[in-house]
């Protein structure tokens, strides 16, 4: 795996597109399918130019039919292809839920392991664009609760490329959640193809006072919070699971053993969110003996995402919330 | 075959005529819708409205024709491109504008925005951010009307693209087997985002799908408010007479992109221009033999009403963050 220290910087959306393009060049079985992904280039521009490059047989525009898009991926994957479906907004996965949960995730198991479903379903999730409650969902935990699905949430351009290439090569159905607000961020990304193994977390920043476990855009917000906190002499360590399921938690547990404190941050609503899983893993492990404070969660409020800008902003964790919560934990003021 | 059924319905429908006064009122509402949306676009460009926005400029005749044929007691379920239907239903421009700006005084207290406006007091059960999201709900409203034994109907509006979702087929089937008073109003503006209707549907008319469910289907000129009015009136009569649902397809066109970020690479300028030449407002002005002065004066009146709506919205307060948790549960 090349290091992230390359010199070329590209955006997250370009990184996703590069992963798709290189995967399609390397493997004829890979094709794209989804709504408005052709001449339109995708609602967020991810597949811009790819229809011209690969043609309508490999970049397939569909009617508005989410259940059929997911099901088509299942069928194609079962019979030797490597489909990459796009669901235009994560919210609309609800319409393809049956095909994903009852078919894609279970076929291999039900068939006694004699078939595989190597498909990827990409989708933009999250809030922050003023799109209101039906276009701003963070539903990742739904999928982590389904054995047979893998769930990936890259937080940087480098991760987006490497994880997507790995997801396409994986033999299992993978839900690949991109964050709408991350599309425009840039970072170093090697030009050559590379993969990041699914399931491996990343220590995004080293620190000694507190472990912050964050997913997707919250990793970026935690990094900004870390800069603020560093000015006060507080050094946080940031762990990004990158793949929510499966997730090798040993790095996270080692980190908590080192710092003695943990804060879990995600955008999805708190109740029954992925944070509950992370906290459980920490307190179930040997890290329990090292804890100097309760493990805390910072998550979205238990409400649908409001349209009003200010309400929307306050509905999910922001940098200042992470700073405040981290400070309290480190100072023992919880 | 469905085609002959369609032809019959169209003829019967075309016979019903509107008075000059009714047509005048419809023209004014169409102008109001046009100016409302143009203003909303300005406000968006100024950053006063955020998120996304789907304009129905060019489709006004369908909205006024359809609402005109229904009563205050009937129900409306609307789409993401629903500003026109909302106004034609009699909703107030000022409360709508306040919602666009995310204000506490807006129809949904700033929580819903342009894609989710409802006016529950007026039986407008809301626009929907989910394509075909309203169709299954219309079945429930139809059941409720029957259970309460009232003379109401429910009209659910959706696009050509929505007719490819499973929800469309499941809902029409149920409404049909149970003979429910539902009017399925398909606004065929020729595109679902970038997908042209010819590429997403392998039949000439969406209304032909009615045949598969044993209900009436009719295609009308959606740029002609009288034709839409006539079709919806007939559908309403059938529904209250216990003769079940109707699928009405209104052929029309959106002049603007799907939403703000649309570069429109999927269609030509000439095509847009050709539809603009069939502009519903200009057409009705001509049919009414209205002078340019009278037309301009009427547009001015609409502009003034919209200006007042914007003033109201601008002066309205933002929602209080302290109330953010409100409204999830009763
Ligand atoms: C279930 C679902 N899939 C996709 C979308 C994204 N989307 C919003 S509007 C739209 C096009 C809808 O086309 P149509 O039904 O013809 O209505 P129109 O926009 O033309 O009025 C799409 C794909 C959505 N909102 N909901």
Descriptive notes:
The complex is a heterodimer of chains A (334) and B (330). Chain A contains twelve helices and 14 strands. Chain A has helices at residues 12-26, 50-54, 66-78, 97-104, 107-110, 140-144, 157-169, 217-231, 250-259, 274-284, 309-315, 319-331; strands spanning 9-11, 30-34, 59-61, 82-86, 120-125, 150-152, 174-179, 186-188, 202-205, 210-214, 236-240, 243-245, 262-269, 296-300. In chain A, α1 packs parallel to α7 (157-169) and α3 packs parallel to α4. Chain A starts with 8 loop residues before the first strand and ends with a helix. Chain A is an alpha/beta fold and 334 residues long. Chain A has a seven-stranded mixed sheet with strand order 3-2-4-5-7-6-12, sandwiched between helices. A five-stranded mixed sheet of chain A has the order 9-11-10-13-14, sandwiched between helices. In chain A, strands 1-8 form a two-stranded antiparallel sheet. In chain B, α9 links the parallel β6 (216-221) and β7. Chain B starts with a helix and ends in a 15-residue tail after the last helix. The model of chain B is unreliable at 1-15 (pLDDT under 50). The interface between A and B is large, with 36 and 42 residues. The complex binds thiamine diphosphate. Thiamine diphosphate sits between chains B (79-81, 129-131, 158-162, 187, 189, 191-193, 258) and A (35, 64, 66, 88, 92, 95).
């Amino acid at each position: 795996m090349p290091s992230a220290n390359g010199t070329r910087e590209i955006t997250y959306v370009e990184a996703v597109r590069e992963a798709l393009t290189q995967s399609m060049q390397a493997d004829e079985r890979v094709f794209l399918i989804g709504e408005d992904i052709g001449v339109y280039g995708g609602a967020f521009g991810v597949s811009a130019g790819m229809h011209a490059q690969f043609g309508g047989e490999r970049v397939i525009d569909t009617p508005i039919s989410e259940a059929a898009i997911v099901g088509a991926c299942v069928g194609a994957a079962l019979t030797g292809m490597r489909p990459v479906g796009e669901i235009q907004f994560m919210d609309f996965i609800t319409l393809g839920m049956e095909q994903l949960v009852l078919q894609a995730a279970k076929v291999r198991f039900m068939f006694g392991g004699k078939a595989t479903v190597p498909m990827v379903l990409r989708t933009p999730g999250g809030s922050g664009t003023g799109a209101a409650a039906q276009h701003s969902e963070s539903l990742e935990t739904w999928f982590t609760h389904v054995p047979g699905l893998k769930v990936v949430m890259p937080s940087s351009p480098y991760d987006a490329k490497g994880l997507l290439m790995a997801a396409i090569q994986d033999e299992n159905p993978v839900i690949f959640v991109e964050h709408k607000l991350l599309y425009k961020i840039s970072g170093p990304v090697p030009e050559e193809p590379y993969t990041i193994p699914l399931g491996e977390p990343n220590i995004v920043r080293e620190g000694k006072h507190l472990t912050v476990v964050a997913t997707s855009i919250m990793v970026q917000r935690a990094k900004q919070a870390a800069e603020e906190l560093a000015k006060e002499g507080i050094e946080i360590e940031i762990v990004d699971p990158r793949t929510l399921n499966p997730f090798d938690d040993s790095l996270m547990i080692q980190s908590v053993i080192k710092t003695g404190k943990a804060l879990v941050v995600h955008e999805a609503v708190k109740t029954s969110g992925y944070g509950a899983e992370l906290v459980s893993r920490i307190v179930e492990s040997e890290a329990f003996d090292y804890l100097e404070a309760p493990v805390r969660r910072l998550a979205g409020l238990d409400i649908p995402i409001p349209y009003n800008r200010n309400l929307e902003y306050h509905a999910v964790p922001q940098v200042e919330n992470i700073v405040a919560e981290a400070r309290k934990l480190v100072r023992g003021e919880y | 075959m469905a085609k002959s059924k369609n032809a019959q319905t169209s003829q019967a429908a075309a016979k019903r005529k509107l008075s000059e006064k009714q047509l005048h009122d419809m023209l004014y509402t169409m102008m109001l819708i046009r100016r409302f949306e143009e203003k909303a676009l300005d406000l968006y460009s100024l950053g006063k409205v955020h998120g996304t926005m789907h304009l129905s400029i060019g489709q006004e005749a369908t909205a006024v024709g359809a609402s005109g044929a229904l009563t205050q007691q009937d129900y409306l379920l609307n789409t993401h491109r629903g500003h026109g239907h909302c106004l034609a239903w009699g909703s107030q421009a000022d409360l709508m504008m306040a919602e666009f700006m995310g204000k506490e005084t807006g129809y949904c207290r700033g929580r819903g925005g342009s894609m989710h406006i409802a006016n529950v007091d007026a039986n407008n059960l809301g626009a929907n951010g989910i394509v075909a999201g309203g169709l299954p709900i219309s079945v429930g409203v139809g059941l409720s009307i029957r259970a309460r034994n009232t003379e109401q109907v429910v009209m659910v509006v959706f696009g050509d693209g929505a007719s490819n979702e499973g929800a469309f087929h499941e809902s029409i089937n149920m409404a049909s087997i149970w003979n429910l008073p539902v009017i399925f109003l398909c606004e065929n503006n020729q595109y679902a985002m970038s997908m042209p209707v010819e590429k997403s549907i392998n039949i000439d008319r969406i209304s032909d799908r009615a045949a598969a469910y044993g209900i009436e289907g009719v295609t009308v000129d959606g740029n002609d408010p009288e034709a839409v009015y006539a079709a919806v009136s007939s559908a309403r009569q059938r529904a209250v007479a216990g003769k079940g649902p109707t699928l009405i397809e209104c052929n029309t066109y959106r002049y603007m992109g799907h939403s703000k970020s649309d570069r429109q690479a999927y269609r030509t300028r000439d095509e847009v221009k050709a539809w603009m030449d069939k502009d519903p407002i200009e057409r009705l002005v001509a049919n009414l033999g209205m002078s340019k002065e009278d037309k301009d004066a009427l547009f001015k009146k609409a502009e003034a009403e919209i200006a007042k709506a914007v003033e109201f919205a601008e002066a309205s307060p933002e929602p209080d963050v302290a109330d953010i948790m409100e409204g999830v549960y009763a």
